[in-house]
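FAQ: What does a multi-protein file look like?

Like this. Sequence, then tokens, then the next protein.
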Amino acid sequence: MRLLIVGTLKGQLTTATKIAMENGATVTHAEDNEQAMRVLRGGKGADLLLVDVALDIRDLVMRLEAEHIHAPIVACGITNDARAAVAAIHAGAKEYIPLPPEPELIAAVLAAVANDSRELVYRDEAMGRVIKLAQQIAGSDASVMITGESGTGKEVLARYVHTRSARAKRPFISINCAAIPEHLLESELFGHEKGAFTGAVARRIGKFEEATGGTLLLDEISEMDVRLQSKLLRAIQERVIDRVGGTKPVPVDIRIIATSNRNLADAVRDGTFREDLLFRLNVVNLKIPPLRDRPADILELAQHFVKKYADANGVPLRPISVDARQVLTANRWQGNVRELENTMHRAVLMAQGDEIGPDAIITPDGDRLDLAKTAPAVAHATFAAEQVTRALVGRTVADVERDLILETLKHCLGNRTHAANILGISIRTLRNKLNEYADGGIPIPPAGVPGEYPRMPAMG
């Protein structure tokens, strides 16, 4: 956890610094907005800015946005002035803390920002095997690829590996490759020199340099443009980076952890991901099973989230009833742990009486989870449609067309004429396509005898 304290309230901010450091934070100081920006550009970075309410918070927010620096701001002041607090929130601060600070309040803010409460909770043996492997490789500097569906907890596992490594006391820097536009991602990763492009008002240290000595998490790396992948490969291989607009390489010392919710082997075949980069990243693969495949974790996690959100909302801690447990274990949890967490947060707020019953286990729009299911036939069709769509996403039109042509040809036992009729193309077009595939080394079904092909099923 990295805290940047901005302001000149020396005595009071010294107290805040002491409390923060006692809670494991690394603290840096800046006297004003300009100095704060120099600190952030210089690579020290911050997970949270604690800012004197007397400063121009709106100006600081605008400066951060202009340079694409993402760090929440908590305002602080020596008086419990409601108007000052409201003005700070309107200016862009996330919270307001009166000074002198209460130790519990500072600790709570740091924990919320650092998200230290995201514990690795599991009971199922399927997840246990993944954790065991993570423990075995945590102490090394080997690159790690963490794969799994969205919401399974890939970033939580990445932090788990970092905290058990020799780099645990150094920075853990995360960047979501899918959330940053392609033209900005290179600068975010490698930094830039002043004037390198429009808007580059000063030198900016990128995530690679910011993470030096620690761990860099490349979240959803499958979304990175293939042109940027070559520069990433060089950085991993040679442990040097080139800032955008820079004239000399900069050495870095980091461990790389990457995550993906897609099959990168398929992406390699489709030409959207470099095979040599995959080999560099995939030294160890930690594959997290979906929540539906580790049923013992459902109730363990549900109970964990109930306690977490009961504490956070100041409501009584209620046990989960037997009927509610059955509802939870019967659900497929397509959104995995993230969906379960949101469901239990709602349950904590909606529960009445001594237990959390089925009536509190609801969907976001208020329907009971066990009554919101579609009819079996509709559900099956929806699931099948989703599977087909998912199989198409990320593939090129040419690849989909090729598979359709070859599968249709197989269905027709190799008969070119009948296959062309079903596909709605000319026999000449079909033959040209097949010759193209054959030249590429793809096996083509042999020509069949006219008339000897399966009957099409009657419609209606």
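And here is the next protein:
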Amino acid sequence: MSVKDTLLTGSAHVNGVDIAYVDKGEGDPVVLLHGFPDSHYLWRHQIDPLVEAGFRVIAPDLRGFGESGKPQEVEAYDMRTIVNDVVALTQHLGIPKAHIVGHDWGAAIAWMYAFLMPRRVDHLAVLSVGHPGVFSTPSIEQRKASWYMLFYQFPGVSEQLLRRNGWRLFKEIMGGEGDHQRYPRELAKPGALTAALNWYRANRSPEAELRVEGNFPPVLAPTLGIWSTGDKALLEEGMTGSAKFVKGSWRYERVEDASHWIPLDQPEIVTKLLLGFLGTEKAAAVPTRRRRL
């Protein structure tokens, strides 16, 4: 990552991996979690406005991305492991409770963090990706939109095909969206592409669908779900169907004229929605008994 593409302020070794992060501002903490194939830099348009509004913003490079550690083993990217990264990082930074905001895989992590660690969540905001309870039984339309997840399942083969001919296939999959010009440079770094694909291999493999899922604990925090009409990967039903898993207050916002990368395509709208939501409602009462990951 070039100097102009980073806002990082620190790094910590937590949960067995080095996690680079932004820690900026004072006040109630907000943790911003990115997805594939991004880094903290996804949130560059939201960080300063949140700081100026009186929040302390923490935006990590999640494991496998950006300047954080990149284990090469598939099992290193299990969702519970990554949730524990976030827990460990917030503990390292002295944060017992925070607003949690996530996009793409970051939203999936945010959902799990919220229902497994309710005492550590004030408000929850999720962009693009709905509750895992909805995605565990996807419609055929959603399966068609998620075709690339199956393509990413072949270690070595996926990497070679995505890199071939100047990353042509990867660029076609991206379709000129997000930070599409920067992603190949980042994924070309040693171990980066395999690490990024391992998120899918650890959590969205065909075998994963055979796992017996227990009942999901309800999300007790006030929750904001944001989906964009130009999202080619996720259907609206995934977000609207998430309401039944939220026991706290639920709010849904549909953003027009944005691809899957809402924080980049409609930065002012995303910032306005977050500022209008975080801290405006009383957090739900949470159980005193801590859930184990």
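Q: Is there any per-entry metadata?
A: Some entries carry free-text notes. For the entry above: The chain has one domain: 10-279.
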